[in-house]
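Throughout this chapter, every protein is written as a compact record of paired, labelled lines. An example of such a record is reproduced below:
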Amino acid sequence: MLLILDDPAPGAENMRRDVELLHACAAGEIDGALRIYGFAPPCLSLGRLQPDSDVDLGACARDGVDVVRRPSGGRAVLHDQEVTYALVCRTSDPAFGGHVLESCARIHAAVARGLKTLGIDTAEHAPGADMRAAAIHGATSADCFATPAAHELVDSSGRKLVGSAQARYRGALLQHGSVLLEPPRAAAYLGQPAGRPGTGIRQLIGRGVTREEVSSALVEGFHAAPGSRLEINSTTAAVNADDA
């Protein structure tokens, strides 16, 4: 599995690279990839089926925020003070594959393992017995971080720390994840009141954690996953999506 550490790029370019990796995996050209990156300029990404009407385009234009649509599902994420990962593999991958909830749990476990190296304890959100009611309630907000979905990572007080969404294509999967450095603020660009106040890694541990630290922690967490075949060496770390 390739490791790709990319410099920040515009939203449309980041999504293009992720889709190319997904298609390459589906075609058998690569076994999989973990891509870790950022966005420049800041970008609001919408879930694959999220309506355009959720976005306050005037606010985005005023603040220089790009808008892009993800190939994965979920709701809007503001990519600014955060680190994004994209995990691509076959749905049969022994480390990160499986049915949707199974693969999400395996991927979240790797992220949680990485965050643990920074001194951050996380848990998977348990919506209770009525998962359908919880899902309907969550869908009423356009903001990914307003309400945690089943099995997403939250802090000890239940505040969502990592947003995630998945897409599947011809036997391959793509999972996007956004790890917050600072509290979420996408609501300012969605024309609706903010949900429950969120948090970020810097607030949780009380220091200015860098993107590089978080990226390294994620790599460590994925590399340590049972069955992982992540290649972490100077060659693969330098690979960019165009070379994949």
